[in-house]
Structures are given as structure tokens and as C-alpha cells.
Amino acid sequence: MESCFFLQNDQYKFLRIFITLRPMKIANIFFAILFLVFVGVQYNDPDPLLWMVIYGIAAVFFVLAAVGIQNKKVLLGAIVVGALYSLTYISGVYDWFTIGQPGEIVASMKVDKMYVEESREFFGLWIALAALIFLYKKS
């Protein structure tokens, strides 16, 4: 580990470690924490277990990358499976674009407008996939 001339005292060990981290390691830690937060806020979703697993898988990939463990084939497989699964939400996104209103995506969920929830889930999945694609390209 590189040393920082201005942080020699042990009480600053955490700060010294953080300063000497590589940018990609910091990004991996950031995304791991972000997706763990996403897992935590899924408790009020209509299908929380599914989304906890999806965001949890993304978090695991970033935790593993942060500690130097990566398998590009498994990561690519997860990206492909996620992209294929996102196709199940295409009709909801289409409905939102054709009959919905832009503000509905952030409004409260209504049973007669399932396309709102399907659109949210589609975009949430693609947030996770975009992050995993970023990880794949950087690894």
C-alpha cells in the first residue's frame, strides 16, 4: 500500500486507506452500497423478494469486484439473463409511452394502471444492468 506523508498516525488509518484506493475500487464499493440500499427499500414493493434478489445479485458482483474476485463469464451471463427478463416488461413500457402520462411514473400505483409498475420495474432492472455492464467493461 502506498503511504501518505501527511497521514502517518494510526488514528487516520481508515482515511489513509481510502485515499490510496484505486478509483475503480471506490466505484465498486459505492455501487455495492447503492444496491444494498436498493435491496433495503424493496420491502414495500408488490413483489419484494424478486427485486431484493435482483438488486442483491448486483450488490454481490460489486462486492466481489471490490475484493478482486471477478468472473466475466458469470457476469455476462447475469447481464444476458437480466436483459432477456426485461423483455417481459416491454408491453407495460409501451403502454406507458402510448396511453400514460409522463408524471405517472412517480405517482402512486393504481390497479387500473399496471403499466406504471411495469415501467418502473423495467427501468429499475436497467439501472442494475447498466451498472453491471459498466463493471463488465471495466473488468
* Shape, per Cα inertia axes: elongated
Question: From N to C, what is the helix and strand string?
Answer: HHHHHH
Low-pLDDT parts are: none
Q: What is the average of the pLDDT values?
A: 86
Q: Could you tell me the strand content as a percent range?
A: under 5%
Q: What profile does the largest beta sheet have?
A: none
What is the terminal separation in angstroms?
21 Å
What is the domain tally? 1
The chain-level structural class is: mainly alpha
DSSP helix count? 6
Number of extended strands: 0
Oligomer: single chain
As a whole number of angstroms, the C-alpha radius of gyration is: 19 Å
Search tags:
139 residues; mainly alpha; 6 helices; 68% helix
Outline:
The chain is mainly α and 139 residues long.
Give the helix/strand layout.
Elements lengths: L12 H7 L3 H18 L7 H19 L5 H15 L3 H10 L14 H25 L1
Helix pairs in contact: 2-3, 2-6, 3-6, 4-6, 5-6
Task: Please tell me about this protein's structure.
- This protein has 139 residues and is mostly helical.
- The chain has one domain (23-138).
- The chain contains six helices and no strands.
- The protein has helices at 13-19, 23-40, 48-66, 72-86, 90-99, 114-138.
- α2 runs antiparallel to α6 (114-138) and α3 runs parallel beside α6.
- It is elongated, with a radius of gyration of 19 Å.
- It starts with 12 loop residues before the first helix and ends with a helix.
